[in-house]
Amino acid sequence: MELRQLQYFVAVTEEGGFGRAAERLGIVQSAVSQQIRRLERELGVVLFERSTRHVQLSGAGERLLPEAQAVLVAARRTRQVAADIASGDDGLLRLGSVQGPGDRIYRLLNELSATAPRLQVRLRRLALADRLTAVRSGQLDAALVRALPAAPGLELLPVWSDPLYVALPDNQALAIEPILRLEQLADLPLRLAPRENNPPFHDLITGALRSAGAEPLLGPPFTSFQETLTAIGTSAPSWTVFYDVVGLPPFPRVALRPLAEPALATSLAVRPGPPSPQLRHLLRVLAHADTSATPSVVAAPGRAVRPPQRSDPGGHA
User: Fold this and answer.
1) What's the whole-model pTM score?
2) Closest CA to 185 of 216, 226, 164, 220
3) Res 306: pLDDT
4) How far is CA 227 from the centre of its chain?
5) Do the Cβ atoms of 22 and 32 come closer than 8 Å?
6) What is the dihedral of CA 166, 108, 294, 200, to 10 degrees?
7) Residue 309: CB partners within 8 Å, gap ≥ 6?
8) 3-state DSSP call for residue 160?
9) What is the mean pLDDT of residues 67-78?
10) Angular region, 91: left φ>0, alpha ψ -120 to 50, beta rest
C-alpha cells in the first residue's frame, strides 16, 4: 500500500469519478484507475461499484474511506512536524544539567519555552565525566558544566558565573568582614572534598589560593554540608567554600560570607561544528536572556547572614 493510492482513493470519492480525480491530481485517468485496482488487490476488497455512467463507493469503500482520510491527515501531520523539527520550532533538546542555582535554570527554560513553545527539553543530571561522554557520543545535545577549563573533543561556551561563599567560625576576627579574600583565609585549614570527587572545583580553589600567594592548607575533607558546617562551628577553626544550589538551614556558630574571587564559571559543552536547530534556540536564549544570579547571601559586619539555599561542592559540578 502506498500513500498515493490512498490519496487517489480519497480524490475519486470526493470528485465522484476517475476523470475528475485525475484532473485534480494532474495525472492521466488510466494512472488513477491502475493504482485504485492495485489498492483493491492489496486490501482484498472492492472499493467502488463501477458502471458506464457513474462510480460510487462500495460498502467496503464507505467503511475504509475515513481510515484512508485519517492516514493522509497523519501523513501531512508527520511532514509538518518533520519540517518544524528541521527548523527547530519542534523537536527534543537533551541537556545535561548541573545542580542549581535552580532559579537560573528555570529562567533559562522559561525563556526557551517562550521562544520555541513546541520544543521539548529533557534534562539529565549526570556526573561530570558521564555528562561529557554523553555529549561526545550524541546522547546529549549539550551539557552545562562548572569550573571546567577545557574538555577534549568539545567546545566550552561561557554562559554565566556564580559567586562563591565561605563558611568559617563566627568567633574568628574575619567573620566581621563583609567580603573575604582567599589570602585572608590561608592560615586556616580548608575543608575541601577530595579532588577525585570534583576535579574542576578542587583545582579552581587550590589554584586561586596559589595565585594569591598562599599554599593551600588542607584540613579534614568536606563530606556533607551538615557534617562539615557542624564541624566548623564546634571543632578546631577551619573553613570551607561552596556555591549555591538548593535549601541550607542556619548553623550555630558559623558565619557565611561572600568570597571576592574567584567566581565559579558555568559553560555549555557542545560538539564542534554547526549546532542543531534545537541547540541554536538554546544558544540564542543564552545570548540574550538575563541569567544573572539572585543573591542569596547578604553580609554585613556584625549582622547575621541569610544562608544560601544549598550547595554541594563535593558532588556533581
Assistant:
1) 0.69
2) 216
3) 42
4) 31
5) yes
6) 10
7) 100, 101, 102, 244, 245, 246, 247, 248, 296
8) strand
9) 94
10) left
Which residues are within 8 A (CB) of 292 and not within 5 positions of it... i.e. 6 or more apart? 160
Q: Where are the beta strands (DSSP E) in 98-213?
A: 118-125, 142-146, 155-162, 165-169
In the chain the domains, ranked by start, together with CATH numbers, are: 3-86 (1.10.10.10), 92-317 (3.40.190.290)
Average pLDDT over residues 73-93: 87
Q: Retrieve residue 162's grid coordinates.
A: 556564580
Grid cell, residue 91, equals: 523537536
The position carrying cell 556533581 is 316
Q: What percentage of the chain has pLDDT greater than the value 70?
A: 88
d(CA 141, CA 134): 8
CB < 8 Å & 24+ apart, contacts of 1-8: 1/39, 1/42, 1/43, 2/35, 3/71, 3/72, 3/75, 4/35, 5/35, 5/36, 5/38, 5/39, 5/42, 6/39, 6/68, 6/71, 6/72, 7/72, 8/32, 8/35, 8/36, 8/39
Burial label, 315 (beta-carbon count in 10 A; 0-12, 13-18, 19+): middle
Instruction: Name, in order, each residue with C-beta under 8 angstroms of 186's C-beta and a sequence gap of 6 or more.
Output: 209, 212, 214, 215, 217
Query: Amino acid identity, residue 194?
Result: P
**Confidence bin at 156 (pLDDT 50/70/90):** very high
